[in-house]
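Re: [help] complex structure
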Amino acid sequence: MAVPTPPAAQHDRGLPAPPAGLKAWLTSPAPASRTQARLGRFYRGWRGFVRNPAAMAGFVIVLLLLVVAASADLIATHSPTVAGDLRTERLLPPGGEFWLGTDDQARDIWSRIVHGSRVTLVVVLLVSVISMPVGLAVGTVSGYAGGVVDAVLMRITDIFLAFPRLVLALAFVAALGPGIENAIIAIAITAWPPYARLARAEALQLRGADFIAAAKLQGASPLRIVAVHIVPMCMPSVIVRVTLDMAGVILIAAGLGFLGLGAQPPQPEWGAMVASGRRFLIDQWWVAAMPGAAIFIVSLGFNLLGDGLRDVLDPKAAER
Amino acid sequence: MAVAAPRRQDGERGAAALRILIAVAKFAAMLAVTLVGLAAVTFVIGRVVPIDPVLAVVGDRAPQRVYDRVRAEMGLDLPLIEQFWLYLSRILTGDFGRSVLTTNPVLTDIARYFPATLELATLGTLFGTLVGVPLGVLAAVRRDTLLDQLVRVVGLIGYSVPIFWLGLMALLVFYARLDWAPGPGRLDIAYDYIVTPVTGLLLVDSLIAGEPGVFWNALSHAMLPGLVLGYFSLAYISRMTRSFMLHELAQEYIVAARVKGLSETRIIWRHALRNAAVPLVTVIALSYAHLLEGSVLTETVFAWPGLGSYLTNSLQSADMNAVLGATLVIGASFVLLNLLSDIAYRLLDPRTR
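Output below.
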């Protein structure tokens, strides 16, 4: 990629012309444009991220999850839902034709895990997509408006925070009826309050900033100020928090699946697969062990990735 | 001056008392609002159930007249806000309705199942604290060594592992393969019905009744689920201990203690840990509250007859009174534990006095 030489702004101040090259352009101490500054910050963050082996491991795991989910049809060796020969292929141990063995319906566990990665990804993505805007909206409005609005919104947030997440999700799914869509809605309902808290804290700090006052003087409506000026500033920390929460979302979704409240059979959901293996735990351990290991690895990956992202984006919190 | 001084002190004391009173009132008001909010959430959940509670009582062949009468009897024809008021006044008197599954009042059921959960969560928290705190301290003292990394890995696994799967694997290894632990349940059948429940905590009741055999059997049964549950709290507590200790060890009073020539052991365990202990109390209380949640999944795996099993069994049979009652009780315990940890923090930390 051709690298643009730094624009003229620097020469005016008599700074020495920086050496050419992408790296130099990215690490320039005096970025000449907003894009350069942003890319530069991103680059420095990336450098720190790459140097952190744990974060990279998490990154690789999540990347693998994405690849597996995208090419599930190619990677799976058998059908995830159609049963095999019930007389000869039931509960076979790992090895040979069935890499991770077969379950009680003679289905290949490997193929089911591979296809299950799609379910997991959909849950994580949809929960984030639903809960993040809600949390951002509640938090920024609350922080910017202050007063009664703030008090009311924060009380509501506290009430949702007061329930243990799994229990609240359980109660909602019980009311809405089992199924993957309802599980996603229920988890999203329990996921937004921390984002609202975080966004409110940031909005409170921004409220008195000069650029907000300037926008106000220009006649911007409160809605516009919140949407255009405050929300974008709150995004980075909320995104980090969402990433950190993804492992928790996976575990709750798996827990709901395990209790039979998530994805319904024959959909290959990992938690439900563990539950179906319970009956054969003693003699055919792989039926329950393999999908559980998949949940564990993916949730570990998201945890590592989230920790790494936080270290990069928020050096203050790195100590914790 | 000499005359005025005591009076001013009196005034200050009065002002301080007033401040505390206001703080307590604020606390109480917030607690009340949160608890009413909890009730509102369960009320709303109860409303969105697609099952018509009137139809469930009268059956779908009842004439309209009967249907309307029962609907009025159940208070379902009232405006929502009045219905909520009725609901609130009922749960305040401890009336959560009847469980369809067990036919008992839900509160009776909860009173019977809750101690088992409490027993498990206490055991888990004990394990998590007794192992997690020293681990966290050592990790902070030997920062960036192999030990620190090891503690970090232990913590990460604790955060990432699905607890129901960990429970199943523990059963597979320690019960089925190694035969170190007894199977699921709270007691072997041979020990059933020996001890009359007093507190409902089997470990306590067996001691009261003077039945050591029952006690040891109960303890051996509680060990595996307790450890599985405690592993999560170990992960959380060790991580937070490490972070608090790192903060304390960087303070100047530690340097002063070193200059004074105190032994490193004394500095770490007496000086630093003592200050780190204040926020740790909050962390331990929080982890205890989270174990109430973790017990939902652990109990189903270990067939442990606690609130979690009760909740999941009721879920499976759409027994909404029981589900909402259990949810409310777990939520309220969560709020109270949070409150207690907050109060303990204020009492322990001289700066907040």
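Residues 4-92 of chain B form one domain.
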